[in-house]
Design a protein that fits this description.
The protein has 121 residues and is mostly helical. The chain has one domain. The chain is built from 4 helices and 2 strands.
Length: 121
């Protein structure tokens, strides 16, 4: 069974949107689930960074928007992961205790890499 890069990108975008969507709902209810970037909860920004590329990917155009938003989320994930690792900040964690910023870093790295592969084909 061969999985296309298009399908894998779509899968990652949907899984990411669902995952961060749950965090956004929790943030709306508690007001303390997500670290803030300025006054805005980071999970809102990351949700937007999943939704814009999802729409661009489904429409099969707007690659510049895709890379702009996945790149922004990738940079946020790098900064959050470093701060999580060094200790001055705490990322939300999965039920298994894995910091979500680490997962975001992996997902957005894959999304950028897979899109480059898809475009080159």
């Amino acid at each position: 069974m061969k999985i296309s890069s298009y399908s894998l990108i779509l899968f990652l975008l949907i899984i990411g949107t669902i995952g961060v969507g749950g965090l956004v709902i929790e943030e709306m209810q508690t007001g303390s689930s997500c670290p803030k970037i300025g006054m805005l909860p980071a999970c809102y920004i990351i949700l937007f960074c999943f939704l814009v590329p999802l729409v661009a990917h489904l429409k099969k155009k707007w690659n510049m928007l895709y890379f702009l938003f996945t790149g922004l989320a990738f940079l946020i994930a790098i900064m959050a992961s470093v701060m999580q690792y060094l200790g001055p900040s705490e990322c939300p964690k999965t039920d298994g205790g894995i910091p979500m910023c680490y997962l975001s870093l992996v997902i957005f790295s894959l999304l950028i890499t897979l899109k480059i592969v898809q475009i080159k084909k």
